[in-house]
Design goal:
The protein has 16 helices and two strands. With about 425 residues, the chain is mainly α. The N terminus and C terminus are likely disordered.
Length: about 425
């Protein structure tokens, strides 16, 4: 029996929608790429550079459509990322020390080695600032590939890759905040700090109104944007203010039991709606916001971002050391770092592989971690002001992400088939013992 989307966990929803979400991202990216390399290229550029203004009293905020998407819509994406990080740290996979250690070790290796490879290839060159581009993993794409593989991969590998990508996202947020930030305006930074403090106070006091957090989030985004920090950081900051609580099992069951008893003359449909309402009210604000944002980010924010950023005009530039650094970082550095970090943690006895997950399957996860797409394109925009270098970086990201998806899926199918063949060969011997 399939659970309804309303009652499914965020992780279950992510895996369930992963294949379609990945396909949607691919389609929008292909549309953008073809559009930017067609005779209609001018209209694509014109769309990116269309300006919209937001006026508040005597103040006006005027940004191009590309910037509204990258600075505005992506703040919603980072809000969802922050909510997932907080949930996983408190009650999810990262709440277990050994599982968290495995994900952190793998993510650390998967960030440091790609950055090192890129830095070696671009040391002292004009593209040296792009070392952060090959550090990130696109969780939607990676889990989309795993969803397409179905039962060929164990659930433990999907959980590991999710935890890895979440730690990876946290690392990317820190890199953006520390290394890809322009001059800071202290007055607006102070206003942002006060707004975040108010949100944290609401969270500590158990305020459950998502509308209040929404208002505070919009103010926080504006102040962070004006401060010189990248505006998307506001999404992560707000996420850590939204409260999460463990449900009270006794009170929860009593509420459901009371709701399940039909009153005299009451319709079954009304009773079911009451049960649904009680189920929804039992969730913490963090869970409710995460459920609400997930389809918005998956089916609107990320496809629009892909449409605005994947349109790379190949005629305007070719492959160079920036492209090679990104490609080698994602295709070689990622699997080496992920598998190497995980192996070291297991070898030291501070972590263990997930249940039914083998080292060959971990190599497949490492290859899929090389799908950088969303976050890598995002960091590319921050790292390069030069249009030619930005094109090189985006080409490297697109090519590496496609190759990583194909290689990762092919490798996991190969090791899955070998595992089935080995099991089939051993079966007769097992029966004869």
């Amino acid at each position: 029996m399939s659970s309804s989307p309303r009652s499914a966990s965020p992780f279950a929803q992510f895996v369930h929608n992963g294949a379609f979400a990945g396909l949607l991202l691919v389609c929008t990216a292909v549309i953008a790429f073809v559009w930017a390399n067609s005779p209609l290229q001018g209209s694509y550029t014109a769309l990116q550079q269309t300006y919209f203004s937001l006026t508040l009293g005597d103040s006006a905020l005027k940004l191009s459509l590309e910037h509204w998407v990258n600075d505005g819509l992506m703040a919603v994406f980072f809000l969802l990322v922050g909510l997932e990080i907080k949930r996983e740290l408190l009650i999810g996979e990262l709440a277990s020390r050994r599982r968290a250690t495995l994900a952190v070790a793998a993510a650390a290796g998967g960030m440091l080695i790609p950055a090192g490879i890129y830095a070696l290839l671009n040391a002292g060159g004009p593209g040296s600032s792009g070392w952060g581009v090959p550090m990130a993993t696109d969780i939607a794409f990676a889990l989309g590939v795993l969803a397409l593989l179905g039962s060929r991969v164990p659930v433990g590998l999907k959980v590991f890759l999710t935890a890895l990508a979440i730690v990876d996202d946290l690392g990317a947020v820190l890199v953006i905040a520390l290394f890809y930030t322009s001059g800071v305006q202290l007055a607006f930074l102070g206003l942002a700090a006060l707004t975040w403090g108010a949100a944290l106070l609401c969270g500590r006091r158990g305020v459950v109104s998502l509308k209040l957090y929404g208002v505070l989030g919009i103010l926080l985004w504006f102040f962070v944007l004006q401060s010189g920090l990248h505006a998307t950081i506001a999404g992560v900051l707000l996420a850590f203010a939204v409260p999460i609580r463990r449900p009270d099992p006794a009170g929860y069951l009593a509420s459901l039991t009371a709701a399940a008893k039909p009153g005299r003359g009451e319709q079954v449909g009304a009773r079911l709606r009451d049960l649904e309402d009680r189920l929804e009210q039992s969730q913490s604000p963090l869970h409710r916001l995460e459920h609400a944002l997930h389809p918005v980010v998956t089916f609107a924010v990320l496809p629009v971002f892909a449409l605005m950023n994947a349109g790379v005009a190949v005629s305007a530039g070719g492959l160079g050391t920036v492209s090679l650094g990104v490609m080698f970082g994602l295709l070689i550095g990622k699997p080496l770092g992920v598998v190497g970090g995980a192996w070291l943690a297991v070898r030291l006895g501070v972590a263990a592989l997930p249940r039914r997950v083998t080292w060959p399957q971990m190599i497949g996860a490492g290859l899929l971690a090389g799908i950088g797409f969303t976050m890598s394109l995002f960091v590319s925009n921050l790292a390069f002001g030069d249009a030619a270098l930005l094109i090189q970086a985006k080409l490297g990201v697109l090519m590496a992400s496609v190759l990583a998806a194909v290689l990762g899926a092919g490798w996991l199918i190969l090791v899955s088939n070998k595992g089935k063949q080995s099991a089939g060969q051993l079966a007769p011997e097992t029966k004869s013992v």
